[in-house]
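This part of the workshop introduces the protein records we will be handling. As an example, a complete record with its sequence and its structure tokens follows.
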Amino acid sequence: MASKQEWFPWSDDGFLTLPATFDAHVHLRDGTMMRAVTRTIRQGGADAVYVMPNLVPPITTVKQALDYQKRLQELEPNVEFLMSLYLYESITPEVIKDAKREGIRGVKSYPAGVTTNSSSGVVDYASFYPVFAEMERQDLVLNLHGEMPSGKDITILNAEEKFLPTLLELHTRFPSLRIVLEHCTTAAAVEAVKSCGPTVVGTITAHHLSLIVDDFAGDSYNYCKPVPKTPEDRHALLNAAVSGNCKFFLGTDSAPHPAIAKRGGPDGNAKHAAGVFTQPYATQYILDAFEMAVGKGLLDATQLKKIDVADFLSQFGRDFYREPRSRQRIRVSREKTERLLSVVSDDGDIEVVIFRRGEMTRRLEWL
């Protein structure tokens, strides 16, 4: 059970000072949406992010990735944008060599149809073995959306667990290939990552540290892919996040959608868009989740050490991506004085509803 003591060793002035956050999984979209959400990255305490390539059309060439990076950098020059390619039939070993030369960090794999803008995703991993072999030689990262498409005995509730044999097979075939199992949601995924060698890691989101399956069933703003799972699965994620194990680090999977798309379109009859938007408060959401977990007895206060929190938020992700550790520092308040507000585009045409909208969270400052 949780300790009755203070849940975190805050400083005497009621603040916690941390290195700037590294967010290893962000969706920044393009056009008007990109302009609205990219400016919120530093608001959430991050100075470097790993950018997902599932635009429309997807980022499948080095030139597209570099052009996208330039657009993002122009919007927010104080953030480092690490870029990725979308695994597609046009990705060849030669493309991988070019990507390495141009500083692209990895390739993201989406099984066909499992999430937003994944219709061009992978059907057969074996056909990409030559690409994976070249990625292994070039030391590029393979980022896996770890779900199987629904069908037969597969649903959104067991899609991740059904994917894990694919992860293990890829690791066996390419043991030196750096692999990220993105947005882990189950105890089985945590154990699978632990069972692999040091080249396999897993990211954990802020919302999966907070939610369980019941929380999205009645609230489309909490609907995401992969979906939150059981209380036992959430408990496993919380323990992994504070374990000090370098195999687990933050990747928010912050996924903005227009509010109208989250509500099922103008008449509410369309499918609800999958994705939870957390970018503007990425660091605060993690601290809030830990506080919630201590309050519910899911974590003991003695498990929360400043160094482990800093490692999860910042250091472990940078180390895996061969990034220098940040010299920038952020300061987060113990008291919750900030109300979580939606993001609206400059022209007022797009509203993006924030996770836990209307609730309170901590103030974050850059030092």
In short: DSSP finds eleven helices and 14 strands in the chain. The CA atoms of residues 204 and 250 lie 5 Å apart.
